[in-house]
Design goal:
By secondary structure, the chain is of the alpha+beta class. It contains three helices and four strands, in the order H-E-H-E-E-H-E. The protein is elongated.
Amino acid sequence: MPDFEELLSFPCHYEFKAFGPAGEDFVDQVQNMVTTVVPVARDAMRCRPSSGGTYQCVSVLVSLQNRAQLEAVYAALRKIDGLKYML
């Protein structure tokens, strides 16, 4: 299995995906949590509803300078109420 450092080189663009309940509240929470680590504009975010409309996937594209930022964003996303899954 390749080492983590072989897969990513910093700085880089990275897309986080958070799955949670449908609605703007979840989108706002994702943006707020990512912004605690790196700046993110709303136009760098995409939302895709589930087939049943109960859930959504919020994708956020950011520029990361180092591995610490990557880990910090994942840690921040874990704090979101209603988060079901993340990539």
